[in-house]
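Task: encode each sequence below as structure tokens.

Item 1
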Amino acid sequence: MPKRSLRNIVMILIGVGLIAFGHTFMPWNMIAGSLLIICALMPHRRLTHSVYAVVGWTALLYLATLDYGNTIWIAGVLSYLLNLLADTLTNRGIRPIPPLDWRLKINLMSTGTATGKIVESGFILLTFAIVFFVFFRHMPIM
């Protein structure tokens, strides 16, 4: 069995295990378990970088965090959209509506270049700002 197939099987089993037996870690067990299964089954930058994935991710986060307030699922969706926006700025772009061959791309940067690192760092900082707002905004600043 090739290493990639074995890795995917292990990821699926861990994902199923988290969903089935990880009730102590609600809602993170549902989110992490589902994400492991999806990553094992879907190739990167194909269906995962489409409008369908945004809708699916939104539904998953919303349903998994119903009892925990609105900010978690909104932050997750915003972070996912930031990832798609960053990939839109590359020369490969994204295919937002497969099976249509149309690509959404703004050839502003390439990964690994100086410009790419600056833009990528900006998106990472935005993601950290969203995480801070969701999880740490109520903590007192010393």
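Item 2
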Amino acid sequence: MPDAPLDQQVITVCYLDRFGRRRELPVEQASPVPFEQLAPLQMPVPYPGRQSFVTKAWASATGQSLACGSLRQQRCAMLLDRDPEVAARSAGPMELHWTRDGCVQSLRPDFVALRAGRREVICVQPEESTDAWHAGQELLARASAVAGWRVLVMRPPDGVELDNLKLLYAARSPQQLFPDDAEALARHFTSARTIRSGVLAAGLPTFAGIDLAYHLIWKRRLHTDMTRLLTPSSTAWLGEDG
């Protein structure tokens, strides 16, 4: 028997509830489920032959440590952590099931996040987009329309963008300086200037002050040209909300 048309296919959502019990329900009933607060449906495991390929990403807004099954997923988690609109989020908390060619198919989005009060289902774009990927995205779009989710496909950063992101991510929690130092430093960037000169003008220790400037860029209080490699000689300026 041929499969039902796309708009008639039954889609279910599988997840672990707060007590670790496996649940599966029709997507039409999934709207109230707080996926962004739930544990992964299945913890990622290393690839055969590797001691470890699973890595973690910190979620500053909630103090969570998200288990990621690939570097591509981790890099997108870092981007999410820098987004001020993203609050609670979880990695791999749900899986969509449907039937195709007589077989049960599945799609596990990489993240579910709460963005500006609305639930967002996030997939990391693969290196090569296959027919199966596009079919899964079509089903996800239909499921999200029913459940009221927003869908986001993220591209992992690379090149200079990735180098800058990793540098800023390492400075997301400044050390060794007092909170007032951030305000003192920010006041010296009302006009564009190099990071090093701003730190010197604020009278801060060079290395700790540069880390603090990177932290302010991470928090989007200071801005810089992220298409260029970030160094102490990079130009930065205070944001409109600074």
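Check on item 2: Residues 167 and 214 are 8 Å apart (CA to CA). The two ends are 62 Å apart (CA to CA).
End of task.
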